[in-house]
Amino acid sequence: MKNPFSEFYHVPNSKELLDIAFKKSMKSSAQVSKNAPILIKAKKKESKRIQVAIEELIDRILKIIKMVPIIDDLPDFYRELASILVDIDELKLTLGKLNGILPILNKIEREHLSRLNRIEAPKEGDQLRRSAFGRISSIINKQNKNLEYLNEIRGSLKEIPSIDYTLPCIVVAGYPNVGKSSIVKNISTNKKIEIKEYPFTTKKLNMGHLEIERRFDKIRIQIMDCPGILALRAKRNYIERQAILALRLISDLILYIFDPTPACGYTVDSQIELYKEVKQNFAKDGKIEIVIVFNKMDLMSSSEIEYLEERLNLQGDDYFLTNALTGENLDKISSYLKERYAK
Ligand SMILES: Nc1nc2c(ncn2[C@@H]2O[C@H](COP(=O)(O)OP(=O)(O)OP(=O)(O)O)[C@@H](O)[C@H]2O)c(=O)[nH]1
Ligand SMILES: [Mg+2]
């Protein structure tokens, strides 16, 4: 399913909205016969201007409101991810406030049109239109904070990956800085992923794909690069919670990455704690396979490998030994995954 926020476009601020509406309004022309008295002409012209400005604003505000999907109706993954990234109550409140000004704009229109009907000199028409624009500006300007808030949250919501629920999804998990992104970037189609030498470089979920050639067709499998997670924490931050969410809701297979060396900055014991936690909570009693990778083989000592093998009760064939810097052995991971899903 396409990211439901993918059509959440730029939200104009109050100044932009007013500029658009007033410009359109001043360009409008009322239908009135050339021979009509000046007073009638003035009435018609200014009525039209007020109507056009208000129609344009209502139309634009409705479009903004409709651009935001109804969060409660979204599938679990998108709904929960959106609530990690933004305060949903505040979002609803903001949309409610914007919606609340629509009847006020309508009222200003009604009031000014009826007053325009009663003017006795053409210049009063101009004054009335100015007074309507003043009231409109003050109402729209009061919404600026809300418009800017929508534009601000739009950034993170638009970056939510699209997930195809009909395709398998591999979730790549592990401690921060162990090489998860390096692996996904190397083996998947997603070459935009950021890699840095410090922890929590990845702050959002990044989707990549692997293409599998089958006898008669080609299929794609999804591979999700996740932010790092720290073990044994009662309260995880919004970065870690996205990874937990992916493990809980969309993983068909978990690729668990260890860095057995001190390079990542975290102990192997804490990585083992997290591994156990992931296995216990997200392997769904063995229904979800966990594929283990020991990354940074170029930096690894044999005692570091032996320690992990012993603690996890593994033998050489039970895990992949990789170097994500040079790509060494990463082809073995992709071949394994492709073979597994080629049937
Ligand atoms: N020597 C060596 N360095 C590696 C290897 N794999 C990754 N790195 C380096 O380790 C650092 C972290 O790599 P990332 O791929 O960003 O790690 P990550 O697990 O995605 O990190 P977070 O997004 O912060 O959780 C980078 O400086 C990589 O270049 C490896 O096999 N060997
Ligand atoms: Mg990363």
Report on the architecture of this protein.
The structure is a single chain. This protein is of the alpha/beta class. It folds into 2 domains: 14-158, Four Helix Bundle (Hemerythrin (Met), subunit A) (Up-down Bundle), CATH 1.20.120.1190; 169-341, 3-Layer(aba) Sandwich (Rossmann fold), CATH 3.40.50.300. It has 11 helices and 6 strands. It has helices at residues 14-27, 38-67, 76-85, 88-117, 122-142, 144-158, 180-187, 238-249, 268-282, 302-312, 330-341, and strands at residues 169-174, 206-213, 218-225, 253-258, 289-294, 319-321. The protein has a 6-stranded mixed β-sheet with strand order 2-3-1-4-5-6, sandwiched between helices. Strand 5, helix 10 and strand 6 (319-321) form a beta-alpha-beta unit. Helix 2 (38-67) runs antiparallel to helix 4 (88-117) and helix 4 packs antiparallel against helix 5. The protein is elongated, with a radius of gyration of 29 Å.
